[in-house]
């Protein structure tokens, strides 16, 4: 039986980084011992720990290797968090999106957290389609719709190319058995978030700032005529 290391840091999903934790409970996972090659064995231990900064609790299971008698100390080979740690953080403006969009995007983030990349990837295409149709109506193929966004000045040529790349990757997942790796999946999400920010969040912020500029102008003393 391994005693928990009091200096060990865990990822806190609330603080969204590694922090110091207090041990709350721990023990060996029942029937988890497995023989490995030679005299080595593996076993699993569970831990409930509490973040010293925000006090939220975390449950995780370590898989450890015991090399065998006289072969050195046991070491932790891997740690699984339950529920899994987020694959990526939602952008800070996420809750400003209308619920209508968050319903589908929430499912994409959940799929990402559970490594369900086929669905996450085809989901990005669906989410962008919903966004585009909401803005300009269902006027034909993805290519036509993206061209329309461009010709109406809602996106620039760089954003048009980014959108086409994500839609194409999402279609490949839906139809051609394409599973993006972590890096490609993050690229798709970076672009999806950028497009949502550009089309939904930024216009609202611009209006707010325009109202602030107006208020500012009204309270600024006028320059005396020369
Ligand atoms: Zn914390």
What hetero molecules are in the model? zinc ion
Radius of gyration, taken over Cα atoms and rounded to an integer in Å: 25 Å
Described by strand count, sense and barrel closure, the largest sheet is: 6 strands, antiparallel
Q: What are the low-pLDDT stretches, counting only 5+ consecutive residues below 50?
A: none
Percent of residues in β-strands: 15-25%
Number of beta strands: 6
**How much helical structure, as a percent, in the residues?**
40-55%
Number of helices: 5
Head-to-tail CA distance between termini: 86 Å
| Structural class label | alpha+beta
Summed over residues and divided by their number, the pLDDT gives a mean of 92
Order of helices and strands: EEEEEEHHHHH
Structural key phrases:
single chain; 226 residues; alpha+beta; six-stranded antiparallel sheet; binds zinc ion
Question: What is the secondary structure topology, with strand pairs?
Answer:
Elements: E1 9-12, E2 17-28, E3 34-35, E4 41-51, E5 57-66, E6 75-82, H1 99-113, H2 117-136, H3 142-151, H4 157-175, H5 182-219
Antiparallel strand pairs: 1-2, 2-4, 3-4, 4-5, 5-6
Bound molecules: zinc ion.
């Amino acid at each position: 039986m391994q005693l928990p290391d009091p200096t060990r840091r865990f990822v806190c999903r609330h603080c969204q980084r590694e922090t110091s934790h207090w041990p709350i409970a721990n023990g060996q996972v029942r029937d988890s011992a497995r023989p490995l090659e030679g005299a080595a064995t593996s076993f699993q231990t569970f831990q409930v720990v509490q973040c010293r900064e925000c006090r939220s609790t975390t449950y995780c299971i370590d898989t450890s290797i015991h090399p065998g008698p006289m072969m050195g100390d046991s070491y932790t080979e891997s740690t699984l968090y339950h529920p899994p740690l987020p694959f990526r953080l939602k952008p800070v403006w996420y809750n400003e999106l209308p619920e209508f969009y968050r319903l589908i995007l929430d499912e994409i983030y959940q799929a990402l957290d559970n490594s369900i990349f086929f669905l996450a990837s085809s989901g990005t295409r669906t989410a962008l389609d919903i966004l585009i149709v909401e803005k300009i109506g269902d006027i034909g193929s993805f290519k036509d719709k993206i061209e329309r966004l461009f010709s109406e000045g809602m996106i620039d040529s760089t954003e048009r190319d980014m959108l086409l790349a994500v839609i194409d990757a999402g279609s490949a997942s839906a139809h051609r058995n394409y599973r993006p790796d972590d890096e490609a999946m993050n690229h798709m999400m970076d672009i999806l978030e950028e497009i949502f920010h550009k089309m939904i969040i930024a216009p609202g912020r611009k209006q707010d700032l325009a109202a602030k500029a107006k208020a500012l102008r009204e309270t600024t003393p006028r320059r005396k005529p020369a």
